Amino acid sequence: MNNQLKISLCIPAYNEEAGIAECISYVTKNAPNKFLEILVINNASTDKTAEIAKSILGVRVVDESKKGLVMARQRAYLEAKGDILAFIDADTRMPAGWYEKVSSTFTADSNVVCVSGPYRYYDCPAWHRWATSLSWVLFAYPIYKLLTGYLAVGGNFAISKKALDAMGGFDTSIAFYSEDTDIARRAAKVGTVKFLLSLKMPSSGRRFVGQGFFKTGWLYYTNFISAVFLKRPTTQDYIDIR
């Protein structure tokens, strides 16, 4: 355990019985004994998500009965004991070196309050993976560097507890789309938000597959632009895809 920087890992989970154990197994394999704690926020699940997570040594399950991703994030903020709160999704596969890169980014610059990176989808068709990887390099990163100065991906970011205190926590009025952009935008008012193309997080592309590649991409990008310029999403409704 890094004695200088205490990082709580937070995993919001709604009906994730099929994948929560695998998600945690990647954490314990590739970041063994690194995190101060591993929290699974059981977000109104109706399946065995909580039961499975509770059976894993070293995991603390916190129940949040109000369904919603941002509700789960807010509960994690209230429960976590670390100086830094790292968030991943329940369908991610944390790679080796992820913890070290997050930790070193915070320790290298005291002004950094949030760090994030892109997804790398592991279960999409090849052309999906190619197109999304290209979009990070050609669109998302240039926008971050040249326009906004902030960018965060909801299943692959870490934020300081002090920044969240200054921000008043997460905005629970946001249902789903652009919630991560809202986090990054507000965090940038407190300190530096870093987006690292090298901080990749393998994640399921189930939303792209289940909802359609072009529709999903359009929803993400239009809501990102709306959150940047209008400070609110354009889309309130969303579909749970499991």
Overview of the molecule:
With 242 residues, the chain is of the alpha/beta class. The protein has a single domain, classed as Alpha-Beta Complex (Spore Coat Polysaccharide Biosynthesis Protein SpsA, Chain A), CATH 3.90.550. Helix content is 42%, strand content 19%. The strands form 2 sheets. A 7-stranded mixed sheet has the order 3-2-1-4-7-5-8, sandwiched between helices. Strands 6-9 form a two-stranded parallel sheet. It is globular. The mean pLDDT is 96.
Could you tell me the strand content as a percent range? 15-25%
Mean pLDDT metric = 96
Largest sheet: 7 strands, mixed
Q: Number of helix segments?
A: 9
What is the tally of beta strands? 9
CATH fold title: Spore Coat Polysaccharide Biosynthesis Protein SpsA, Chain A
Q: Report the C-alpha radius of gyration, rounded.
A: 17 Å
Shape designation: globular
Count of the separate structural domains: 1
The SSE order reads: EHEHEHEHEEHEHHEEHH
Which CATH architecture? Alpha-Beta Complex
Low-confidence stretches: none
Going across the major beta sheet, what is the strand order? 3-2-1-4-7-5-8
Alpha-carbon distance between the two ends: 34 Å
Structural class: alpha/beta
CATH first level: which class? Alpha Beta
Helix fraction bin: 40-55%
- CATH homolog superfamily: Spore Coat Polysaccharide Biosynthesis Protein SpsA, Chain A
Summarize the structure.
The protein is of the alpha/beta class and 242 residues long.
How would you describe this structure in keywords?
7-stranded mixed sheet; two-stranded parallel ribbon; 242 residues; alpha/beta; Spore Coat Polysaccharide Biosynthesis Protein SpsA, Chain A; 9 helices; single chain; globular
